[in-house]
Every structure is written in C-alpha cells, then in structure tokens.
Amino acid sequence: MSRTPLPDLAASGASAGPSADLGPALAALVAGAVAMGLSPILVRAVSPEVGPFASAFWRVALALPVLYGWMRLEEARAPHLRRGVTPSSLLAGLAFSGDLLFWHLAVLGTTVANATFFATTAPVFVVMFAWIGLRRRPAGRTLLGLLVCLLGGATLVGQSIQVDPARLAGDRDGVITALFFALYFLTVERARARGLGAARVTFVASCVTALVLLVAVAVLETRPVLPQSWSAAAGLLALALVSHAGGQGLLAVALGRLPAGFSSLVIFLEAVAAAILAWILLGEAIGPLQVLGGGLILAGIAVARPRRSAPAIKL
C-alpha cells in the first residue's frame, strides 16, 4: 500500500466548517451501521440450517448481482469515476475475507461476548496502521473519542466476557478479526481516494471475498451449505441485500468523504444497533449497563467526529 498521506480530518484536527458538507456521508455511515447490525440476528436465524462459513459465502455471493447493477448505474450517472480494478480494491476483498473467516472462527472458539469485544478493537488498529504506515498522526480528540468508544464497547458486553485459558485460540481469532477489519477500512478508503466509486469498490471487493469464501466452504465447512426451507433462504437473501450490499455499500459511500479513523467507529455503532434490534425483534432485554455502554459509544463518536469537509470524491 502506498505511504502517500491522504486527507484525514480526524487526524489533522481541522476546524469546523459547514456541517451540511458531511451530512450525507454521516447519514450513510449511520445507516450502514444499522444495516450491518442486523447481521447477527439474520445469521442466528439461518444457523439451524446453514453452516457459518456457508452463510458468510451466501452473504457476499447473493449480493453480487445487486452490487453490479448499482455499479453500472453509479458510473452511468457519474462518468468521471474511474473504471477498472485497483490493488486497493483487491486488497479490500482479501481483508474482508479475513474478517469474515476469523470472525466465524472466533465465534466457534470462544464466547460471542469475547469475540464481539475483541472485534471492536478494530478502530485501534486503524489509527495505529494509519499513524505508523501512512504517517497520519491522529488528533487528540480522535484518540479521546476512541478511548470513550472502547470503554462503551467494553461496558456493552463486559458482563458477559469470560477469561478462560481453553478459549484463548478463539480470543486470538477475535483480535485477528479486528486486524483484518482495520485493513478493510484503510484499503476501501484508499480505493475511494483513487477515484473509484463506492459501488465499484464494493463490487470488486465482494467478488474477491466470494472466491475466497467459496474455497473456505469447500475446505472448512462441516455443516449444510444450502438452506432447507424458504425461511432460511429468505434470511440469507436479507443478509446479502441488507447487511452486505446495504451495510458495506453505505460504508464505502461514507469512506469517500470521511476518514477511516473516524469511520471505523461504525463497528461500535453496529454493536449498539445490534443490541437495539435484538431488543425489538427478539425481545432480548437491555439492562442499565447496555444503556450506559451505548451512551458512551455515542459520546465517543461525537467527540471524534470530523470538524469540516475534506477534499474528496464526489458521491
């Protein structure tokens, strides 16, 4: 990956400007978080019939026709967008493959709470990689916001976290999940900065991810690959269209205007959205600690938010 610095408002400490400049990107980020927050519920719904690696594959593969159509439409309406494939878009696909694979391995190897907690450390690695690898020093408010979000994330799932030497491999896979997710943010940001539209970046990355996951299914999957009921098939389709095409697509839109360091905080919003959706759809109780954790996450995002618009790709 090139070491040429990219504009990063959260890192530069730029002063405030018209909030309307970033409004659509912020809205895309929040909407993407809600869409991705639905994925644990949908995975749980299809899990009795479809194995974890197979569900990850269908999540991406079934979204490809929609992403292709979006790409053609976006590029027809915006001829200035760059065509073709870039190294960053290919690397984004490999990074997302690693994210999904190690996430499922973490869930299988440790508790869901542990896997979730370690996965939410992804923004730490985004800031670290951008600082060390891209020479983009984070602003103080970025670090403060990240610290508050981490505290909120720990509070959100903290009462369920367990320390068990027998689950260390699963905990390790949770950390690796965070590493890959951090690389995904940075590579998507890089691809968008090189002139690719959000749809093309998401489509190319998804093609790579689908190929990698197809191999993983052939090698690792021990449970059924195809759904046995219409309800499970509908769940996989919703996972593909809402959580992947919608969630990852909107994230790519946001990364055309917002820095990766700030956008990576979407993983905390995703956890909050998942808790709220589980409460609404599944009746899972939300206690005082979950409310406190969610409040801390929102406060941390407010602290870290960019203060003005950056030179960026047209959306």
UniProtKB/TrEMBL annotation:
Keyword tags: Membrane, Transmembrane, Transmembrane helix
Segments forming domain EamA: 26-152, 175-303
Keyword set includes Kinase: no
Domain of life: Bacteria
Cellular component terms (Gene Ontology): membrane
Residue stretches spanning the membrane: 21-43, 55-73, 85-106, 112-131, 143-162, 174-191, 198-220, 232-255, 262-281, 287-304
Pfam families found in the cross-reference section: EamA (PF00892)
PANTHER family found in the cross-reference section: ACYL-MALONYL CONDENSING ENZYME-RELATED, EAMA DOMAIN-CONTAINING PROTEIN
Official protein name in the record: Permease
Lineage of the species this protein comes from: Bacteria, Pseudomonadati, Pseudomonadota, Alphaproteobacteria, Hyphomicrobiales
